[in-house]
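Continuing the series of single-chain predictions for the mutant panel. This is the parent chain; the variants come on the following pages.
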Amino acid sequence: MKKKSDWLDDIQEQQQLKYRFAGKVEEREIETFEKEYGLTLPADYRAFIQRLGCGSIGHFEIFGLGVKPVGIPSLPWLLNDLKALDVMPPAEILPVSPLGDGTYAAVLHKPKGAFCKGTVVRWTPNSKSARLEVLGSSFSSYLLSLITGR
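Parent structure:
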């Protein structure tokens, strides 16, 4: 009997899109990041970082860890860059992927209003609107929607 694959296996087995990932990230690096930025990553985003680090699926970049913090797709680089530009996201929001229109897909690393930890929303830097557009109920569902186009 074939072992049931998880969502990360589905991503790695996807043949329709080209993908590049940095590779495995040690738990210590993830813990250091969480401590430095005062947050706890949602379980599925943490699993993605542990197994794949960061990278791209097709033309979609996914921020994470496992690379030097000198540019995309380094999550610490992004957060430091946003801080330097004085456009930090609200405390609950962690940008994980640029959407190409000046906005970001962002995972909630703690609940915000009616939204659960792990929900992926569209975040617009410097927006005065408190309205959040949901892009996925979780990081894994958002990532799978990028691959499948649904």
